[in-house]
Design a protein that fits this description.
Elements: E1 3-6, E2 16-22, E3 29-30, E4 35-40, E5 45-49, E6 54-56, E7 66-68, E8 72-77, H1 90-95, H2 122-130, H3 142-148, H4 152-161, H5 179-187, H6 202-205, H7 225-240, E9 243-251, H8 253-270, H9 277-290, E10 297-299, E11 302-304, E12 311-317, E13 320-322, E14 325-326, H10 334-350, E15 363-367, E16 386-390, E17 394-400, E18 403-417, H11 423-438, H12 441-445
Parallel strand pairs: 12-15, 15-16
Antiparallel strand pairs: 1-8, 2-4, 2-7, 3-6, 4-5, 6-8, 9-18, 10-11, 12-13, 12-14, 16-18, 17-18
Helix pairs in contact: 4-5, 9-10, 9-11
């Protein structure tokens, strides 16, 4: 009798998750505490560790299945022999996108699908061929995939089309491969695909993964649990809160001069780059002290005011934006804030953020400027009552001392719950932000 592999406790109020990817296949050798599967919760991806060393047993569930906390999803068998065959139908298992889920340390908070097959056994390749999945021209190693930073959904698409990811040029940020890149690369070989791959009926043409005969490709991908939660919460915020957005612009000259003057000394002393976010977090803390309703929330017919500031900072993850919380931001130094944000950004990209790190924020800052946004109306993150949107910096003509001059300007947007925050308070909040950013000395003397 093997040792059961169970779904671990996932955090407060979380009772179930989606199995995003199997990291170990039946028969694989497993070390104690080595990740064997990745789960998708409403907030983050969570790895399931092996309870003991041994051989991976049969999978009781497949990728995309919903599992409850404490449910048995597999087992660890003693010895090094091959594990029993999976309980699920072998033909369906081979044809499912989750079959090549052998990336031992790849996170799956992007989608619930597995990626391109790693260098594996001849049996794995034979299983793929029997399922009608063409083998990639060159299998990539785990190190290659990690270095390329390819999301699991993109790898799955490439696997289905028999493409070598190392030969596709990425058009995403920092050269990252996107689904569009894979589709564009696949279009050059579509005509050479076996005739069996072409749709033979109206129903097959509309089925997932089958491109229409006219060459107009479509793909149906089930929303990840994280994306479903984001969609649900944003819609709930629009339905329940009276959201209004007010704008102001800010001259970034002083902050940019300060960064240019002290960035080398700051990095040498603290080991972290001095960014813009530290200034905005500090400025937001000052503004929240003057406008406490922006740091409050509604609970029934009561308003909950707080004398602390837990700032949620929106960071980009492969599966969408996540908002980890800088605890007690009002008590942290510039260096501590910058270190915390840098750590959040790195772990969000790797899918390593913890559930508790994204709970309990009192105010949110979202920086769409890193993606080139000029202006937006951000949606509040319930139960918070306000969110600040930062945007890109660009030189614009402004009047200073009667002269038209070029200045690096940024638009700020404050979306707020009008049930709790009046327009006067919202405008005052942005004015306080503007004053602090345009004269950073205020951040030091608490003005």
């Amino acid at each position: 009798m093997g040792i059961e592999v169970k779904v671990p406790t996932l955090g407060e109020s979380i009772t179930e998750a989606t199995l995003g990817q199997w990291l170990k296949q039946p028969g694989d050798a497993v070390a104690a505490d080595e990740p064997v599967a990745s789960l998708e919760t409403d907030k983050v991806a969570v790895e399931v560790p092996a309870p003991a060393a041994g051989t991976m047993g049969a999978h009781a569930v497949g990728a995309g299945d919903t599992v409850a906390v404490g449910a048995v999803i597999s087992s660890i068998e003693s010895g090094g022999g091959a594990a029993a065959a999976p309980k699920s139908d072998p033909v369906a298992k081979a044809s499912a996108p989750s079959a090549p889920a052998q990336a031992p340390h790849e996170q799956t908070n992007t989608t619930g699908h597995a990626g391109v097959a790693l260098k594996g056994s001849e049996e794995d390749q034979a299983a793929q061929e029997s399922a009608g999945v063409p083998a990639p021209a060159t299998a990539l190693s785990e190190e290659d995939l990690s270095e390329l930073g390819i999301p699991p959904s993109v790898r799955r698409m490439a696997l289905e089309r028999g493409l070598d990811l190392s030969k596709i040029k990425g058009s995403g940020r920092d050269g990252q491969l996107t689904k569009g890149d894979v589709l564009n690369a696949a279009s050059g070989v579509t005509a050479e695909a076996p005739a069996a791959a072409a749709p033979t009926s109206k129903s097959s043409a509309s089925s997932p993964g089958q491109p229409p005969a006219a060459g107009r490709n479509e793909e149906r991908v089930k929303m990840t649990r994280l994306r479903q939660t984001i969609a649900k919460r944003l819609k709930e915020a629009q339905n329940s809160a009276a959201i209004l957005t007010t704008f102001n612009d800010v001259d970034m000259t002083a902050v940019m001069d300060a960064r240019a003057r002290y960035k080398d000394l700051f990095e040498k002393k603290h080991g972290i780059r001095l960014g813009f976010m530290g200034f905005f977090v500090k400025a937001a803390v000052l503004a929240l002290k003057d406008i406490p309703s922006a740091n409050a929330s509604l609970e029934g017919d009561e308003i909950v005011y707080r004398d602390y500031a837990d700032i949620s900072v929106a960071v980009s993850a492969p599966g969408g934006l996540v908002v980890p919380v800088i605890r007690d931001a009002d008590k942290l130094s510039f260096a501590e804030i910058e270190k915390t944000i840098a750590d959040f950004g790195k772990r969000a990209k790797d899918g390593k953020l913890k559930i508790e790190e994204m709970q309990g924020g009192t105010f949110t800052i979202s920086n769409g400027g890193v993606f080139g946004s000029l202006m937006s109306t951000p949606i509040i993150n319930p139960p918070q009552s306000a969110v600040l949107g930062m945007h890109r910096i660009e030189e614009r003509p402004v009047v200073r001392d009667g002269q038209i001059v070029a200045r690096p300007m940024m638009y700020l947007a404050l979306s707020y719950d009008h049930r709790l925050i009046d327009g006067r308070e919202a405008v005052t909040f942005l004015v306080r932000m503007k004053e602090a950013i345009e004269d950073p000395t205020r951040l030091l003397i608490d003005l």
